[in-house]
Amino acid sequence: MDQHEQAIWVEKYTEMLDPARKSTRPPHMAYQRDRARVIHSASFRRLQSKTQIFGLNESDFFRTRLTHSMEVAQIGSGIVEHLALRDDADNYQAWLPSPYLIEAICLAHDLGHPPFGHGGEVALNYMMRHHGGFEGNAQTLRILAHLGEYTPQNGLDLTRRATLGVMKYPAIYEDLAEQDQDYQACLNLAPVTDFKTWNMKPWHPPKCLYQEEAAVFEWVLAPFNDQDRTLFLGLKQPPIPGLGQRVRTQFKAFDTTIMELADDIAYGIHDLEDAVAMKMVSRELWQAEVMQHPHFKTHRLWDDTMTDRLFSGSSKQRKHAVSKMVGLMVEEICVVEQEQFSHPLLRYQACLPEAQAQVLELLKQFVFKNVITIPEVKGMEYKGQLIVMTLFEALEANADRLLPANTLAKFNQAATERAQKRVICDYIAGMTNNYASKLYEKFFLPKQGSVFDRI
């Protein structure tokens, strides 16, 4: 990669708007600043009080979005280090992200997740369904481009390459919704009047970006030629219509594939550790649904010693097993090429071989089935959903009485109903689980709240 190409990818949006502000720092320092801006942002700190899987009051041991993001960053930098040492590394070495860059991308990947996990995400999407939608990854870009505190109007203002790496789903909400017949049918339903009876299942949002960030989206994609852009932005229909699956994007950038593998490994293995530690899954269930599964029997990546350590009751043995499982995945990651793309950042893709990919997917499904979808967890998700939707409705209807001064100023300056709703949405999306719960109690529980409580 020559200096001109490097300069393109370390450019910030504010530098494009005002070339006089262009930095002369070398690329590694630009990406180091990206990482620093993420770490020191308020959105990153708030992840310590946002749900990963278990409620924050369950224990101080289990993972939050913050510790999950830190683990994703560690795995991501490990993947880059591994890829740099592979025999075929000369093919893609010049385009590997630096450790600073991949850590910035990984640390930022969950910044936009709202309180109460995916339950909060779906609830906010329902409230914004006719006004641009809500989606956690789209909210992440919004923080990077507009809401973050490092510039007055352009958010955290990361480099172009870091911003590209965070964009998992390169499509605008309206473009996806327009092509999704199932979602269009939902949009035509009568509004729900009783949130307690609302079924969130059909309202999982399209994986998208917001129209409000379209200018930044265009800036990020500017270095790609027309053919690459058209292909990269292509959409695919769900394989079986009518099952609530969304129209999806098809492609991701090179750095994004590394981040997503790190995220999947952390989800499938580290979140499994929490489930085992909390005794939510038994050795017998693990044996039946993982060790005896046809995919694992075909690709037997470890023996029964791993099971013994995982369910030994010893935190040290369990941690040793988890570390070994992560290593088995990371050490097999390779880089393949999508020949239809000309630009290296779109052509190169990090991936797992079939054996490791199938076993990792098996672990993710095991956690999803036996932890995420059980009534105890879903019940907390339902509770969070009610809190989010009720707060949204109350704050919008009583903005002048209930919004804090700085948020009310934004609300009053908003020129359209959509813009006003986005202000409310941004405010709620930035809340932690605890803050949202306390605000709900202050407003709606007679014996809670005080004039001295700060909002």
UniProtKB/TrEMBL annotation:
It comes from Thiomicrospira cyclica (strain DSM 14477 / JCM 11371 / ALM1) (Thioalkalimicrobium cyclicum). GO terms for molecular function: dGTPase activity. One of its GO terms (biological process) is dGTP catabolic process. Residues 65-268 form the HD domain. HAMAP family: dGTPase_type2. SUPFAM superfamilies: HD-domain/PDEase-like. The lineage of its organism: Bacteria, Pseudomonadati, Pseudomonadota, Gammaproteobacteria, Thiotrichales. Belongs to the dGTPase family. Type 2 subfamily. This is Deoxyguanosinetriphosphate triphosphohydrolase-like protein. Keywords: Hydrolase.
